[in-house]
Amino acid sequence: MAPGTASNKYSKKAGHSGRDAADRASDAAEEAVNSKGFELAARAGYIAAGILHLLIGFIALRLAGGGSGSADQSGAIGQLAGSPGGSFLLWFCFIGCIALALFQLSEVFLGAKAVPDKEKLGFRLKSGGQAVAYAAIGVTFGRFAMGGSSDSSSTTSSLSASLMSHPAGAALLLAIGVGILVVGGYFIYSGATRRFRKKLSGLPPGRAGSAVVLFGTVGYIAKGFALGVLGILVIVATVTNNPEQSTGIDGALKALREQPFGVWLLGAVALGLMAYGVFMVVRSKYQRM
């Protein structure tokens, strides 16, 4: 036997063992993701997102009527925390959002296998972005569930101020603003074309199914419009070096109220966000997983 033969055989054997271990880990992860319990937990994440949008829409509607409040994640979740059964709902929403974030993360690696090669990158970026978004919402629910609190608007403003103090940070903020505008445009496009229906299966026939699609159409367009206003505010705040204008979705909705016919526009967006919340709750049942 040649001196290098045994070494080569050992290397090949180690390589096969490593691949086998990776395959077993991948199979175990896929089995866990496909389990009924995990699927139900992930579907609960859509219910959590629906509750959040319903509350934000309700606060925005109150703002349109001359009331006060913080129409952002922290304001909505804080209101939920003070309601009867709020503690249970906070933990329910926390678990659901984290499970849905893990599901979206699994899609980056496992779901992409079924996607054509030319679409893999876009699919992974979208799934990864959704994983981050649901994880962030889940963390906020968890913070309130453990008795804490947060102020999304002031946190956003402080972060913007820190980034604006550096040229690279300002460029990043501009990119974020443009990115939010693009996402907002995609929401409007998805609502107007009813593209979101591709994600649903088994919708009930007749008026019930039509109502689900209507809520989705109105909700997607309203959320896209709100995100568009937010993106513009981030860009304007960066260009004018005024971080106080960058206050998240709450600031975007309040800025909308100050425009001509702003009260009516804000009221329409508020109702649209509530429609999106209803759609997300229903989506938990009909979403393709």
Automatic annotation (TrEMBL):
Q: Where is the signal peptide?
A: none
Mark the transmembrane ranges.
Answer: 44-64, 88-110, 131-148, 168-189, 210-241, 261-282
Cite the entry's keywords alphabetically: Membrane, Transmembrane, Transmembrane helix
- Whether Membrane counts among this entry's keywords is yes
Query: Where's the DUF1206 domain?
Result: 44-108, 129-194, 218-286
Query: What Pfam families would the database entry show?
Result: DUF1206
**Name of this protein:** DUF1206 domain-containing protein
Which parts of this chain are annotated as the region Disordered? Answer: 1-21
Coiled coil region boundaries: none
